[in-house]
Amino acid sequence: MKYDAIVLGVGGMGSATVYELAKRGKKVLGLERFNIAHDSGSSHGINRIIRLAYAEDPRYVPLVRRAYERWREIENLISERLLFITGGIDAGPEQGEIIQGSLRACREHSLPHERLDSADLRRRFPGYAFPKEKELVAVYQPDGGFVLSERAIIGYVMAAQALGAEIHARECVGQWEAKKDQVVVHTDRGSYTADSLVITAGPWAAQAVPELKAGRLKAGRLAVPERQVLIWTQPLRPEYFMMGRFPVFNMEAADDTATNRYYGFPVYGFPGFKMGRYHHLSEEVDPDRMDRDCHRKDEETLREAIRVYFPDADGPTMAMKTCLFTNSPDEHFILDLHPGFPNVSIAAGFSGHGFKFASVVGEIMADFALEGGHKRFDLDLFRVARARKPAGSQNQ
Ligand SMILES: Cc1cc2nc3c(=O)[nH]c(=O)nc-3n(C[C@H](O)[C@H](O)[C@H](O)COP(=O)(O)OP(=O)(O)OC[C@H]3O[C@@H](n4cnc5c(N)ncnc54)[C@H](O)[C@@H]3O)c2cc1C
Hints:
about 400 residues; alpha+beta; FAD/NAD(P)-binding domain; D-Amino Acid Oxidase, Chain A, domain 2; 2 domains; 9-stranded mixed β-sheet; 8-stranded mixed β-sheet; binds flavin-adenine dinucleotide
C-alpha cells in the first residue's frame, strides 16, 4: 500500500504532524517504536511550559501565538482541556539573558507584562522566596502556562485516527531510502512506500538521519541527546503552590555555572511541586543506553535550588523521572527539508524547549511534506544550513 506521507516517530511533534496530514485529507502512516505516549523519549512527565515572552529569541513569538491557537483547536476537537494558563515568571539577574531576552520579546511584540523585584514577587506569589542577596528580578507575563504533553499526544493520535490515519505503535523503523518520487521505509515488521517522509524521532533523530551527526554535513552535531531529571516535592505550604497561586517559571539562578537555569510548575496531576534544571548534569547520552534511574546526586542537585529559591516546597520527594533533551549547537530547532532529499523533512533538535510548539510544528511539517516548504512563518532560524561550517573546517 502506498501512503501520501509516513511520519517516523509518533511523540510530541510526530503526533501533531500525523493529525495535520490526516486533516488535509492525506493518507498517512505514523510509525512509533514504543507505546503511544511512553516514558522513554522527551514528552513524558505530565506537562510542559508554554510561554509567550520568549527569552531565547523574539522570532519565536509569532510561532508561539500560533501554537496557542492550535492548542485551543485540538482541545475543542477532542473535548479535553490540554492548555492551562497560570501566568508565567521569567526570573534572573537584571542584566541576565532571561530577563533581557524576555523584556526584548515583550517590547518587540507589545506583550502585556510586569516587572517585579523579588519582594513584589513574593508578595504576589508567595511560593517565590528568592533571597534578597541573590538580587533576582522577574518579568510576569499573564499568558504563560502549561500543556498536558502526554494527553496531547494521545489526543492528536485519536483525532488523526478519526480522520483515517493509520498509526502503528511498537514498530521500529530501521532503514529508509529516498528516491526521486518516493520513499521506502523498512521496519521490524515490514516495508512501506510513500510520497514523502517526515522524521520526528526526538532523541533518536541522529540515528534516523545520520547526517545530523558529526562529519557529514560539516554542520557540527545537530541533535545531541542529553539526560535530564525531573522532581516532584511535597510542598510544606501547599497553598503557595496551588494552581491559581503559582505561575510557571523559567529562571536563571544567580550563580555562574553553565547549568544555572531552572523551570517549574504549580502542583498539577501529581502530589508535588515539579521542577527541573536545564541541562541537569550535562550528560550527553545514547538514548538506547542511558541510565534511566534517578540517584541521590540527581535529587541533591535539584534540592539545592529548591532550598534556596523555593524553600516552602522543600518537603519529601514524591517522584523523580529521567527524560531527554536533544540539543542543537545554538539551541534553536531544526525544521527543514533533508539536505539530500526534498521528499524527506526533519523536525529535531528541540533543545529542551520544543513541546509548546508541537501544535504549530505539525502544521509546518505537513507543509514540508505536501508542498516541499512552508510560507507562513520565517523559518531561517531553524535551517540545517545555519550551522554549516566553512568548507574544510573540522567538525567536532
Ligand atoms: C525534562 C524535560 C522538560 C522539558 N520542559 C519543556 C517545557 O517546559 N516546555 C517545552 O516547550 N518543552 C520542554 N521540553 C522539551 C520538549 O519536551 C521536547 O522538545 C519535545 O517533547 C520533543 O518532542 P519530539 O516529538 O521531538 O520527541 P518525542 O516526543 O520523544 O518523540 C519522538 C518519538 O520518535 C520515536 N522514534 C524514534 N526513533 C524511532 C524509530 N526508529 N522508529 C519508530 N519510532 C521512533 C520515539 O519513540 C518517540 O516516541 C522538556 C523536555 C524534557 C526532557
